[in-house]
UniProtKB/TrEMBL annotation:
PANTHER family: DJ-1_PFPI DOMAIN-CONTAINING PROTEIN (PTHR48094:SF19), PROTEIN/NUCLEIC ACID DEGLYCASE DJ-1-RELATED (PTHR48094). Residues 4-176 form the DJ-1/PfpI domain. This is DJ-1/PfpI family protein. InterPro entries: Class_I_gatase-like (IPR029062), DJ-1/PfpI (IPR002818), Prot/Nucl_acid_deglycase (IPR050325). It comes from Lysinibacillus xylanilyticus. It comes from the Bacteria.
């Protein structure tokens, strides 16, 4: 059975934050299928100049499901749109709410974590982000300080959050949650990309 991973991208998305995780999932023996979702079906350009025509707009994706959810994970990529929209993107909230209603894991990195904090999703769940101070200053209604953890990446039952320097840790935690590899193989994968061929 194909397991769907929905990746939300927006104009000016941080392409490197998808660089480790998407190839591993797309080429896994676990039959994952990567689909891209955006605010509209128009071409989206990353900060690195990579252009993608999304598979779905959010509205089209939600309509196409007819209340049948086969998504294993929603991945929210960082980028410049979050702050430009003041973290108030109604359609993305609709998508996140859909995932929560269907017990779908939500993974967010960099400013996508700020979006979650701004909209109250992290008030009672362990999480991290681009810094506690940044979240507090950016999110006036944020009430989750007691659950903020100063780590590169934090995993809970329904959320994986990471700061913008944690692309590798983010990928590792997602793969661990989805059981892509054995613990031993995953650790070897992480050590290889973290340390390279030669330790300096």
């Amino acid at each position: 059975m194909t397991r769907e991973i929905a990746v939300f991208i927006s104009e000016g998305y941080a392409d490197w934050e998808l660089g480790y995780i998407c190839p591993e999932l797309n080429n896994s023996e676990k039959n994952f299928r990567i689909v891209t979702i955006a605010l509209t079906k128009e071409t989206v350009c990353s900060l690195g100049g990579l252009k993608i025509i999304p598979d779905y707009s959010i509205e089209d994706y939600l309509t196409s499901k007819n209340n049948e959810c086969n998504m294993d994970m929603l991945l929210l990529c960082g980028g410049i749109t979050w702050k430009e929209k003041n973290y108030e993107i109604t359609l993305v909230k609709k998508l996140v709410d859909y995932c929560q209603q269907n017990n779908v894991l939500i993974s967010a990195i960099c400013d996508a974590t700020t979006f979650l904090a701004y909209n109250g999703y992290l008030n009672d769940v362990e999480h991290t982000g681009n810094s506690h101070e940044f979240i507090v200053n950016s999110c006036p209604n944020y009430c989750g300080s007691e659950f903020y953890i100063e780590k590169q990446c934090v995993s809970s039952d329904y959320f994986i959050t990471a700061n913008g320097t944690a692309t590798l840790e983010f990928a590792k935690e997602i793969m661990n949650h989805l059981k892509v590899y054995s613990e031993e193989k995953l650790q070897k994968w992480y050590d290889f990309y973290k340390n390279g061929f030669y330790e300096e």
